[in-house]
Design brief:
By secondary structure, this protein is mainly beta. The protein is built from two helices and 17 strands. It is globular, with a radius of gyration of 29 Å.
Length: about 270
């Protein structure tokens, strides 16, 4: 009996020691001071871009617009522009082109049809296939080589047109309601281009102000209100897919209804 009691006591002592050791080990393994590192979450920020090269007198006009039937349902819509006091394919001078995605083909025209991702035009002409019996909004503006729009009054055009049932081009009344057209960011960004990403959009038929219309920029679910129409840069975006949504807001903080007032894009950042 005495031997059994000693064995039980010995087993109990060993068990208690083991439990204590395991508890201490678990505490050590889960201690944030010793084994767990909390990742630092980057802060997304939108800040104004300064010192963009200006182009006084730059002007964009339309020389011609035509529609040519290609089959029973569609046409080829072709537009020819005239550009004055601005040179396409020229590299825009200034530091902004050094720390942002910059087109190697130089300055260009942004062709934005129905608020879809733009086509960059390095020649003053473009053509696209459209359906017969369809209506469209077209925003065109001159762009610096790093994709920032020229916001001078003569450097852009906005129009509404239709392709009638017979395939003919018909220009409709110029829009007069407030609208927002999305330009940048767009597509994929790699390496150094992911550090500072251009946020640029075009406002027509209104202005932005602290007590007036604003643009709500939603970046991955985070809302940032912009009350100046100017170029911005986005920093702190994570690698991978990011979602940018721009919405035109009225003076009462309500989303503006109607055509071309809210646009969402997905972009991808890669190492």
């Amino acid at each position: 009996m005495k031997k059994i009691r000693l064995s039980a006591l010995g087993l109990l002592t060993v068990a208690l020691a083991t439990m204590t050791s395991c508890k201490d080990k678990a505490a050590t393994e889960t201690s944030p001071e010793t084994t767990i590192e909390t990742p630092v979450k980057s802060e997304v920020a939108i800040t104004p871009i300064e010192d963009s090269k200006m182009f006084p007198g730059a002007k964009l006009t339309v020389a011609s617009e035509t529609a040519t039937s290609v089959d029973a349902d569609s046409v080829t819509f072709k537009i020819n522009y005239k550009v004055a006091n601005f040179e396409l394919t020229m590299h825009t001078e200034g530091h902004n082109g050094e720390h942002m995605a910059n087109s190697g083909q130089g300055q260009h025209i942004h062709f934005i049809l129905d608020n879809q991702p733009y086509a960059a035009l390095y020649k003053p002409e473009h053509e696209v296939k459209l359906k017969k019996g369809s209506e469209h909004y077209l925003m065109s503006f001159l762009s610096r080589s790093y994709h920032e729009s020229l916001k001078e009054k003569d450097a852009f055009l906005v129009e509404r047109f239709k392709i009638n049932d017979k395939g003919g081009y018909e220009k409709l009344a110029t829009p007069t309601e407030p609208m927002l057209f999305y330009s940048r960011p767009k597509g994929e960004y790699k390496g150094a281009d992911t550090k500072a990403i251009l946020l640029d959009f075009f406002i027509v038929n209104t202005t932005l102000a602290k007590d007036g219309y604003k643009v709500q920029a939603n970046v991955n679910g985070q809302d940032i209100m912009l009350d100046e129409w100017r170029p911005y840069q986005i920093t702190g975006l994570p690698m991978g897919e990011n979602i940018i949504k721009l919405t035109l807001m009225d003076a009462n903080g309500n989303a503006v209804s109607g055509e071309n007032t809210s646009v969402e894009r997905k972009i991808t950042l890669m190492e």
